[in-house]
Amino acid sequence: MSISGQATVHERIVPALHALPRPVFARTESLLRPERTPMHRHPWVQLSYAISGVLHVHTPTGSFVAPPQRAVWMPPDMDHEVFSFANTEMRGLYLDPQLFDDAHGHCRVIEVTPLTHELIKQFAQCPTEYDEAGEDGRLAMVLVDQLRAAREVSLSLPLPQDARVLQLCRQLQDAPDDNRTLAEWGEMLGASEKTLRRILLRETGLSFRHWRQRMRLLGALEALGQGVAVTEVALSAGYQSTSAFIAAFREQFGVTPGDFFNA
């Protein structure tokens, strides 16, 4: 379920860009195979958006998942790596931080409305050094207005900083169907169940049950988006039944798996 578990993930080169040619800069890429952009940072805002496929963005403090109709907002100077699955159509934006009052806020996943989607697609066709006072410049500012108003959605997974609990979380991300209890993890890591529970709650704001549930459901989105049967996805995610998976999915996202990608 995790991209890190795929057999071959190809390294993607970070674009060499020392300054933005315009306040809004677009990048278009067709990624036919699983790709990883190694950990890096920019002095500008980055919006990672896929019109098809699912993106995973990892930072030192969390993981963020963006299926279609969602995008990852990355503030300036934040270390991050980006994973994409096969057949992903990227439409990324680099944005001057001065355009946004909260540019230096937290990394988050935002909703991409149908209007914003069309604006991004149209702007991606503009020349790099577009006329800021002309039609393309006005289009860029309409797009910026839509991004300022974008709603944050709950498609992020906070990560703990404690080494033992982080090890636990990373192993679960690689094997979401691992059903070991927190007590069993404690025996392996040399810490009590109470200690692990306390650290995880303090550093992520989530209980072990809720953290693992969110991790499993976020990891299931790529397979669901590719049309894999819900029963197969549920079992791969560690659920004992399809009904249990659907109930957890509805609790997390407010809709069933069948409705999620049409939301």
From TrEMBL:
InterPro entries membership: AraC-bd (IPR003313), HTH_AraC (IPR018060), HTH_AraC-typ_CS (IPR018062)
Protein name (record): Helix-turn-helix transcriptional regulator
UniProt KW DNA-binding keyword: yes
Source organism phylogeny: Bacteria, Pseudomonadati, Pseudomonadota, Gammaproteobacteria, Pseudomonadales
Keyword terms of this UniProt record: DNA-binding, Transcription, Transcription regulation
Database matches in Pfam families: AraC_binding (PF02311), HTH_18 (PF12833)
Transmembrane residue ranges: none
Residues in HTH araC/xylS-type domain copies: 166-263
